[in-house]
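Much of our argument rests on the idea that a fold can be written as discrete symbols. In the encoding step, the backbone of a single protein was reduced to a row of integers, each denoting a local shape. This step matters because it turns folding into a mapping between discrete strings. For completeness, the protein is quoted in full, as a sequence line and a line of structure tokens:
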Amino acid sequence: MNRELLRMEHIITTISSQRILNQARLNLFEGEVIGIVGMNNAGKTTLVGGICGSYPITSGSIYLSEERMHIDSIEAGRKAGVYYFSINSSLISDVTIWENFLVGTKSGYHFIDKKLSKTKCREMLDLLGITVSINEKISYLSLKDKILVEMARAVYYEAKILILDDIITSFSATALEEMKPIFQRLCLLNIGIILIDNSIRHLKQYCHRLFVMREGKTVAVLREEDMDDNFIISLMLGTKPSKGSNFRLMKTETWNQTTTLLEMKEVCYKGVLKKLSFEIYQGEILGILNVGKHSGTAIRDLLQGDGVPDSGSICFKGQPIQLSSIKEAIRAGISFFHHEKATTVPSLTVEENIMLPALKLNSRRSGIVNHAELKYKARELISQYIVSSQGFFISEYQLRQSRILRWKISFCQGLSTDPDLIVLSDPTRLIDVTAKPLLYKDILSIKERGHAALIISSDDKELFAVCDRIIVVNQGRAEHVLHSGQDSYEQLLYLYSQHLKDI
């Protein structure tokens, strides 16, 4: 299991009274290559400047190998094992490769063993596939070889993190291909690599994860399977993906959905559901107005594996599914939130409470749990949903007394497994009316995180506050579909009043 090399949280950097970074974040594991992409002035270089010492952070937290640090100079960054490279080489051009290796002799060395240092220099060059002589002057090297010599020298001085800023796009097609095995060798040494560039095409071929920045914020973290060009560009610009993208949208506006995430087709169940049909699209919040409570309960039971349809079908991500337990549903990518089950474990910290579902899910998948990654995920959720209102350190007394806090922790638990779909049943039923708008904001953020949501509720105002579409389910059938808006709300009230006569 790879350890976490770097974690940056709540990073704010102000330069000349101008805020450049605003709550940005980043993390990196041993043997991992990550990319940072964004438009010009998105804050990419400033963010890594917080760990290499060129742009010390104004506030926030930096952890290197899980030890909190503050790096205020390039020298301090290099002592911590962080090396930054750009097109402007730091090598001395009129001396040899070997002589450049001697610049910055390791701490504690009082004399230079020429033979040993030349042997080590050659070993480092061979590691990165540099075939030129160690006695070659830097001025005679190609751009790629200069960068590789700098990287080899950093490895010689026990670098832990290598940062390449706007470099790879300057390489030829041949050089780009040659970099792949070099990065692989460095990863085998447990070195972490950060690539900064605006070329999505180039970053995708190297990176395990991609951090997207916009206006000083980290707006998304994408794994390899999510690195769709249209999707990434939409995140960089803050717009909707262009036509042809099948990936989840991160905006809260309504659009024409095209990709079906979940479909119930003519489902009958225990005499409660009677040929019920509806679809949920990727990146959508769909509401079920539960005129009679039994229909909503039946839908939830089917999705969490507490029953199977008598007839009809349920498809999820294009495949028929028949779930036998809530654990199986979570593994498939469906998580749940219910107001009556919004409980916490007082003996655990907030972070540990949030990690519980993801901990169980990850341990079942592989038998190995990456605690550092789960911890980072929990802290990310805490920073978005809890810190602003409660502070990071929360007492057991607060946990017992605050219904809102317990709600938020349970909500974070639902998001901790990175579900494709989260099902919320009467999410704000037990919440004071004055606090509901705050929680509606949290629910709306589900789409910003790239998930879809199904909200089953009998509260018409709640549904219109957060849903893109609302399906009126009465007597086990989907009778009407409404879109949010004042006219639709008045129509819903009329339909609701008519259906209530049938209960």
